[in-house]
User: Which sequence fits this backbone?
């Protein structure tokens, strides 16, 4: 497959797709879409040696949840993750590992009681370290961005995703979404290509809107040229461009599962009810999982099943343990499998082909 993307930014060969997700952050909403802090769809440009956004602290010291192309080899012997041994749970700790560990302890206490084996929390500052430890079997269980699942599956096929949390409205997943005025020139996604309309993408280098969004549009039959595409740093900036006729549609991300009228836009006081009602969602991507719990396949099948049932049944059973891992929605965790993460894998293939295509 050859795709001409024009000036979409320099395509690079992706070794793993990322969703940027702060372990300690509440469930993101579009109120964060454009705030200059990393969220589930981080708007930070990729460094030269990384395919997609690698969020960093302001002092560039602690990337909270980015995945890079390389995982350094570990030292020492691989840990025993079989039944009866200490079960090590890895997590991305950010800049305050002691606080993050204390916050998660009620959850691992619950896990220890369920498994009837010692459980140890192991903090990581970088996802690449967590990936390497999990590949070696040093870590049997991990909590992290959905991209960790795709990266680990591509790297070693040694993990099984267990569960991801439902949204605040009970729906599941992030979505790339195409938004246009109710009375605008784009009434369906086919109008973008056939009539050469202008599209603004929220967040150049963002995962859900830019990388997965364009991949999903292509999968839906929309082939865009680079000169049709521009970028905005936030949805509000994009909405203003659309209001004055500079662009015809916005490619963004949303957690809104259903409905054509856009309602989860940031911040609410900056967009009136009338302005919001004048916009409609005309297309959504497949659902994209967010923060995920996953387990090494070296853990016994029986224990993997126990862990999945523990997660999906935790809501309403142990409030303290649930609160420790709640990403902010207060909703139960839903069982997932590798098929849930297929949009990330498809986007990987899309950008691999794009990297080989001549640009114009």
Assistant:
């Amino acid at each position: 497959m050859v795709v001409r993307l024009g000036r979409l930014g320099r395509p690079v060969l992706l070794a793993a797709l990322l969703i940027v997700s702060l372990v300690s952050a509440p469930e993101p909403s579009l109120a964060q879409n454009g705030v200059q802090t990393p969220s589930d769809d981080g708007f930070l440009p990729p460094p030269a040696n990384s395919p997609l956004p690698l969020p960093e602290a302001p002092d560039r010291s602690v990337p909270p949840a980015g995945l890079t192309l390389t995982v350094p080899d570990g030292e020492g012997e691989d840990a025993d993750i079989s039944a009866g041994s200490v079960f090590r749970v890895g997590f991305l700790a950010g800049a305050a590992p002691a606080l993050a560990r204390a916050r998660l302890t009620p959850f691992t206490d619950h896990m220890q009681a369920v498994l009837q084996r010692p459980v140890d929390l192991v903090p990581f500052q970088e996802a690449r370290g967590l990936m390497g430890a999990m590949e070696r079997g040093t870590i049997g269980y991990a909590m992290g961005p959905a991209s960790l699942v795709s990266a680990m599956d591509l790297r070693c096929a040694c993990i099984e995703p267990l569960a991801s949390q439902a949204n605040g409205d009970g729906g599941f997943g992030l979505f790339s979404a195409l938004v246009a005025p109710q009375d605008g020139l784009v009434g369906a996604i086919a109008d973008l290509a056939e009539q050469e309309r202008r599209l603004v993408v929220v967040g150049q280098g963002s995962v859900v809107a830019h990388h997965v969004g364009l991949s999903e549009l292509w999968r839906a039959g929309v082939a865009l040229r680079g000169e049709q595409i521009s970028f905005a740093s936030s949805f509000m900036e994009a909405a203003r461009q659309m209001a004055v006729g500079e662009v015809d549609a916005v490619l963004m991300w949303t957690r809104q599962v259903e409905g054509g009228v856009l309602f989860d836009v940031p911040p609410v006081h900056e967009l009136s009810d009338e302005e919001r009602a004048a916009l409609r969602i005309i297309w959504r991507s497949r659902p994209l999982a967010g923060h995920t719990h996953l387990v090494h396949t070296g853990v016994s099948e029986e224990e993997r099943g126990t862990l999945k049932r523990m997660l999906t049944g935790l809501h309403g059973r142990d409030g303290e343990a649930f609160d420790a891992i709640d990403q902010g929605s207060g909703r139960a965790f839903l069982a997932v499998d590798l098929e849930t993460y297929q949009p990330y894998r498809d986007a990987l293939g899309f950008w691999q082909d794009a990297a080989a295509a001549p640009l114009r």
About this structure: Confidence is low (pLDDT under 50) at residues 1-78, 356-360. DSSP finds ten helices and eleven strands in the chain.
